[in-house]
Amino acid sequence: MRVIVAEDSAILRQGIVRLLTDAGFEVPAQLGDAERLPALVDALRPDAVLLDIRMPPTHTDEGLLAAAAIRARHPATGILLLSQYVETTDTVRALADNPRGFGYLLKERVADIDELTAALKRVAAGESVLDPQVVARLIDTPRAPGPLDELTAREREVLALMAEGRSNDAIARHLVIGAKTVETHVRNIFAKLALETDLHDHRRVRAVLTYLRA
Amino acid sequence: MPALFALGAWWEALNMAVLLHLVLSFPDGRLASALARRLTVFSYALVAVGGLLRTLTYDPARVAVEATYLSCGDCGPNLLHVPALSGLFTAVDGAYRGVGWILSVFLVVAIVRRWQQASVARRRALLPAWIAIVIASVFLLWDLLTLLLPQPPAGAFQEVVVLLSDVAQVAVPVAFLTGLLRMRLQRAEVGDLVIDLGTDPDEDRLRDVLGRVLGDPGLRLGLWQEDKGEYVDGEGEILAEPRAETLARSRATSTARAARGRGRTRVDSSRGTPLALLHHDPALDEDPELLEAVGAALRLALENVSLRTQAKEVTSRIVRAADAERGRLERDLHDGAQARLVFALMALRRVDKGLADHPDASLRRSVAEAEQSLTLALEELRGIAHGIHPAVLTREGLGPALTALAQQAALPVVVSAEPRRYDPVVESTAYFTVCEALANAAKHARARAVSVSARQHGSRLVVETVDDGIGGADTARGSGLRGLADRLAAVDGILHVDSPAGGGTRIRAELPCG
């Protein structure tokens, strides 16, 4: 699998590249800014791009803009954004609007090579990835009493994992429960939140995130 | 009694000398010219010497009608009378009076000249005094004429004239006093000038008010333009400075710092830098005190305006600099410390992997502890960096930043914000205002819900935070709210806190925006 790495901290970039190559990934290009990124993607056609949101010159949203440019031209290329903050605003909105092949992780997750490689594989395969901490904040946002309060603790766990972009199988593995049980939980959640039940993949992520952001 | 009578006869004309002194030294109490000084000294000497000589020859019993002032047949005896000199009385009296009349003519000439030279404002103020002097002079002239007539008029008519003449002379000092009072009042009007100018006078208003107080409708006011190095008036024309050689520093200017040339008055700041230049009626040079008073009021007004502008600029600059510094600090944390911590975590995970089959379990536990510690450090760092300056504010603006803030709040917060970008300082000030208001609502107000709104009204951004708590918040007590008010003031904003006990709290910040 081929991944381009864009991260402005040289030490971190080298660390990430080493981890990825050790894990059997191919890194055809690595760079410290976002300016040349879309052109590199055009030329190298990687399976996924790992990039920091904040990069030179202004250190604000260079990564976000580059990601949007890449997605417009290569919808099949997976995008995994790294952020040092738990930001649930425009990033989440972008994800919620079109979560196919799009991921958003807190920066320190790159230290866990298993988590990083799994996320890259998922976005490359068109799935969605949302950092658990971002999901936690969305679910824990103080709000007026409503249907969310009717969920059981287990159902909340399942809801969070759905929001992270995980499939039923992944949720079953994560919680160490049977696939049938997961399906039951999902059905109950959708009924309580009055969401459509026959949604799959990124459409399910979108529905859940839209609900949580409302 | 005879001693008193003699003394009265001797100093009978002293009032005339005092009157002359008064007229010549009016209104500032100084005898400006050498001629005036000589005239004054001479008139006192004349009364002292001439009056004594005449008294020596004066026998009240003998002298009857011809000496108007001394005709007092029943008075006396005159203690100073030397009977041997009685025969000289008519001659001495005539000479004494004659010299007195000549002095009077000098006095009238001096008065007319001063009137011609006086400024409009001063003429106006001194009008009563001039009228009184003219009337008194007319009576004195009449007196002189009657003396020269071969057959002096007598009877009731002459008595009335003499009485009126005396009244006119008494009226002169009173009129002078009135004049002085009016001049004082004119200067007091300069005090009103400060009130009239208000706190933030514009140039036209300044000029109009100054022109009115100085009684000079043609007054021109030039304000010093640092970049041009010239005095420029309201029409954009450059006003010529007074020439160096004509600049005169008057008595009070060492403190008042107003330098004058003919028809020109320059007003400098208290530090000695140029402030303004007045082109006025040259006749006003006659009244330096008035010009100085007006100059002082003008300086006060201009320095007030300039200090306020400076203070505003400085505080706004400080706030901007502090904001920029926070942004830089936050980026340094992101680019430096955070990257290194993540890298360390990365290395530690590799070590952990390598130790998977290691027989020493305590080693693996140590690595796990180090990992945990690093993760916590990263989280704390994130919190600190976010508190210093939220990146989302810079990147996405006030609305998204407030939404993010609401998600982290301890209580339900409804945010309604227009999707607009403002000046960074305005955005950060508005953001920190809401932070403080939310903290207040959660910590002190025992609120159940908060609503936050940010919208533009005209040229102002209005940010309002309303909670349903117990109220009673006070800018005077809470240091947080106090700091907010200061910060808002620094960027020309206003903070309103409406927090009746038991009625919730409404914190409203208004900020100028474009």
From TrEMBL, chain A:
Q: Which GO terms describe its molecular function?
A: DNA binding; protein serine/threonine kinase activity
Q: Where 4-aspartylphosphate occurs, residue numbers?
A: D52
Q: Where is the Response regulatory domain?
A: 2-122
Gene Ontology BP annotations: phosphorelay signal transduction system; regulation of DNA-templated transcription
Tell me the InterPro entries matching this sequence.
Answer: CheY-like_superfamily, Sig_transdc_resp-reg_C-effctor, Sig_transdc_resp-reg_receiver, Tscrpt_reg_LuxR_C, WalR-like
HTH luxR-type domain spans which residues?
144-209
Highest taxon of the lineage: Bacteria
Q: What is its EC number?
A: 2.7.11.1
- Per UniProt, which keywords does this protein have? DNA-binding, Kinase, Phosphoprotein, Transcription, Transcription regulation, Transferase
Pfam families of this UniProt entry? GerE (PF00196), Response_reg (PF00072)
Q: Which CDD domains match?
A: LuxR_C_like
PANTHER family according to UniProt: TRANSCRIPTIONAL REGULATORY PROTEIN NARL-RELATED (PTHR43214:SF24), TWO-COMPONENT RESPONSE REGULATOR (PTHR43214)
Give the protein's recorded name: Serine/threonine-protein kinase
UniProtKB/TrEMBL annotation, chain B:
What Enzyme Commission number(s) appear in the record?
2.7.13.3
Bilayer-crossing regions: 6-27, 39-56, 95-113, 125-148
**Pfam families assigned to the protein according to its UniProt record, in alphabetical order:** HisKA_3
* InterPro entries attached to this UniProt entry: HATPase_C_sf (IPR036890), Sensor_HK_TwoCompSys (IPR050482), Sig_transdc_His_kin_sub3_dim/P (IPR011712)
Q: Which UniProt keywords apply?
A: ATP-binding, Kinase, Membrane, Nucleotide-binding, Phosphoprotein, Transferase, Transmembrane, Transmembrane helix, Two-component regulatory system
Q: Where is this region: Disordered?
A: 252-271
Catalyses:
ATP + protein L-histidine = ADP + protein N-phospho-L-histidine
On the tree of life, the source organism's domain of life is: Bacteria
> What are this entry's molecular-function GO terms?
ATP binding; phosphorelay sensor kinase activity; protein dimerization activity
Q: Does the keyword Transport apply?
A: no
Q: Which residues form the Signal transduction histidine kinase subgroup 3 dimerisation and phosphoacceptor domain?
A: 325-393
Q: Which PANTHER family match?
A: NITRATE/NITRITE SENSOR PROTEIN NARX-RELATED, NITRATE_NITRITE SENSOR PROTEIN NARQ
Know the name of this protein? histidine kinase
- Origin species: Streptomyces candidus
Q: What is the lineage of its organism?
A: Bacteria, Bacillati, Actinomycetota, Actinomycetes, Kitasatosporales
